[in-house]
Amino acid sequence: MVFVVDDDEHVRTALARLIRSAGYRVETFDSAEAFIERADLESCPACLLLDLQLPDLSGLALQRRLHEWLPIIFISGHGDLSSAVDAMKAGATDFLPKPVSDSVLLDVLERALGRARRMFESRAERADIQSRLDHLTPREREVMTLVVAGYLNKQVASELGAAEKTIKIHRARVMEKMKAGSLAELVRLAEKAGAAPTTDASR
Asked: Which PANTHER family match (predicted)?
């Protein structure tokens, strides 16, 4: 999916025609607020073709809200060097001055959509891992935190004031609920979810 936000109706129409001719789905919006209200950012990979100068929220302001959600390509007839630098520093995929050739734009869109797919898959993976974490009991979360920090079962037992046999049972349940086949996989899942601890057993 390609979203186009531009307050010029002729530009929106021309861009939508070009993008559809390349086989991509496209939705157009005449303002940042319209985009914020109506665009579905969660159902499929997407990138945003964004005008710098908009009648309500500026393109750069909209970028600050959305850069973690989808790749953003600026296209503007009003762009200056400082705006381009600001946009790229904030994570824009590209900054194209109007008029831009069809071939250049389609090349940039292809790269942006490739990045969009990776971002979409990463979000889906994090959501799946978070769902697994949510099924852990508070005690299982405590055990997992210590296990991924490198604690042995007996160290976890000592830390939590429980029997080592009980810790083994909790650990087995953690592995099952997290769908982790090894300790290394459990650590990877914890890191992906931002649940990896900052301490370790060597402290």
From this structure: DNA-BINDING TRANSCRIPTIONAL ACTIVATOR DEVR_DOSR
